[in-house]
Amino acid sequence: MIIAGCGPTGAMLAAELRLHDVRVLVLEKETEPPSFVRIVGLHIRSIELMAMRGLLDRILERGRRRPAGAYFAAIDKPAPDGLDSTHAYLLGIPQPVIVHLLEDHATARGAQVRHGCAVVGVAQDDDGVTVELADGERLRSRYLVGCDGARSTVRKLLGVAFPGEPSRSETLMGEMEVGAPPEEIAAKVSELRETDRRFSLAPAGVGVYRVVVPAGGVSDRAAPPTLEDFRRQLRTVAGTDFGVHSPRWLSRFGDATRLAERYRVGRVLLAGDAAHIHPPIGGQGLNLGVQDAVNLGWKLAAQVRGWAPETLLDTYHAERHPVAEDVLDNTRAQMELLSTEPGPRAVRRLLTELMDFEEVNRHLLEKITAIGIRYDFGDGPDLLGRRLPDIDLKQGRLYGLLHRGRGLLLDRTGRLTVGGWSDRVDQLADPTAALDAPCVLLRPDGHVAWVGDDQRDLDEHLARWFGEPIGRSQG
Ligand SMILES: Cc1cc2nc3c(=O)[nH]c(=O)nc-3n(C[C@H](O)[C@H](O)[C@H](O)COP(=O)(O)OP(=O)(O)OC[C@H]3O[C@@H](n4cnc5c(N)ncnc54)[C@H](O)[C@@H]3O)c2cc1C
Question: Are strands 39-42 and 200-203 parallel, antiparallel or unpaired?
């Protein structure tokens, strides 16, 4: 298996595939991590996934927990009480740190990562994919996943359409030293934030500030921003450049919003920013990519190992494309709410009032943190298609039992069995009274694939998600 790109999505996918002993080669164009250090927020579902794979302690050591408030369009409201998660917080962590942790995790599990290898060509036939590198080397693999970011070469080579809206406004972000006294900066920032939420200067170390300021137009993306760009924009927006100097790093980002029309073309798939881009409001892009990876990993592994039911791999697009569509929509809505025009400001005031209603607040938070996702697995109880939180079982916490990325049957009846699927699915009898169902079948990504108490019905669903049982597939 070849993965193009070792960002958070590619690294997570590599680790997921290694859980199933699939040989994985990750090709990463860059030799060094990026110079800019954006702090990203991991939301509840991604934190849960890290716990599900035994990674959370390492991430908590390097990240900073904070309450999950002000999560929607930066509207200053706390998260609702009593969220259905043991990880109901936001985890701030520098992106290069999380990428490094995930890459380490993948290589420790046996994935091979080659840096300085840019994918420039892709051709597929009935048996596999030929991947061409910039230096002319050709590699062969059964499948290829493009996790190569917003300007994905793989997506372009596939000819997959990427419809949506181009960038209409850009923002400069960087870290630099300032000459102005802290009190003067604080006073100006709080005055300006009243009207322009895309402006901020926040301390980021001794004498260093993280500066965010509108770029005042859409520029040539090939040219990196300069300190002079920051000075000019600060003077335009704040009336002073605060004496900024000695930049640590400077970057620029836009608000383009696009979604790949297809996540799969034959043996080539797309995940993460290669499949969807949107403005960073609400901090969802990395989360979405990591969750794509966990959805895709076990399905692709099943395909390679030969037990995947025929339609399993296509459920990746069917499940994840609508989730991305929803994220794109909520970022569009949040961007409108940041506008300084009278109409959007009135809508913002109204939504601020509405968020005092517990249900509204909860609905929005579950959307942003992805714990509200319910995949469409057909008719059934509300639990079907949802993720289970990290419930307490007699045998320990649930997520501790999902580290190996296998299916899991939680059986309160004590009568059911995973039978011929025991090489892919674990089973726990009498797990807990807290489980609000007689019996639940979990997929390796922690989503509920079946709820019931009948063995024949269970067997049908085991076959639907996990293919033929051992005896039958061998016979
Ligand atoms: C200012 C800002 C703040 C953000 N804050 C958050 C946040 O708080 N929370 C959040 O969830 N998200 C946030 N995001 C979004 C997040 O950074 C991205 O969604 C995330 O990096 C996507 O991960 P990825 O692995 O899909 O792609 P990338 O991180 O872009 O990784 C792609 C990798 O592929 C490599 N590559 C590219 N082309 C090739 C090729 N041809 N061959 C081989 N390798 C290639 C690249 O070098 C790169 O390493 C933010 C974004 C911005 C701009």
Answer: unpaired
